[in-house]
Amino acid sequence: MSKIADNLTQVRQRIQQCALAAHRDPYSIDLLAVSKTRPASAVETAYHAQQRDFGENYLQEALQKIERLNHLEIVWHFIGPIQSNKTRAIAEHFCWVHTVDRVKVAQRLSQQRPPHLAPLQICLQVNIDEEKSKAGCTVNQALPLIRAFAELPNLRIRGLMAIPLPHNSETAFQRLAQLQHHLRKESGLALDTLSMGMSDDLGPAIAAGATIVRVGTAIFGARDNRQSAPDHGAMPTN
Ligand SMILES: *Cc1c(COP(=O)(O)O)cnc(C)c1O
Hints:
The protein is 39% helix and 16% strand. The longest helix has 19 residues, at 3-21. By secondary structure, the chain is α/β, with parallel strands linked by helices. Strands 7-6-5-4-3-2-1-8 form an 8-stranded parallel sheet.
């Protein structure tokens, strides 16, 4: 039955080995299971194998799963591109948002966060390889953005997130960690989170200081892009 449970065990072992190799505490690294395009049943299977944090990229697809699974104590993370007209549903249904890169989006998320919920935990997405037409701020924009986010009452700025180019992600992870260090010093904020590393590069991400690795394929198997969730029109490219 549970390929997913076996895969989770293996990914946890990999995280532990990479942490020990980097002289880090394995418990300082959280595993975010990326469940985009997977059915609610796959999330439930992983949940019953003790996984609690799940990442979703596509809002409509995510909202259906969140509703279906609202009897479970899942911590939902939004890790997809954010259109400003979608901020209300994100602010209402997620605990974390990893992909904030604009003041306007941050302001809306803060305004729309329901008062009975804990502050929304956010990461600033950095376009660390300065790729054209890719989400994320530049390295130079990071400090003013972090300072602006820190002023917003219903958000808690936790750190940085990046999706580097695959071929030399190792140096990109190191640059993101250096930026985190610089921002901590300049802002005085704790910024304890580095969201970086996926199925293929979690080792170098952990070596560079990742505190959240976002893993889809290594847990749930290869994504079949032709069978994306039925309510999601556009085909995921990643
Ligand atoms: C899809 C995705 C992941 C997971 O990628 P895998 O290669 O399947 O592990 C991680 N982060 C983001 C932002 C994603 O979109």
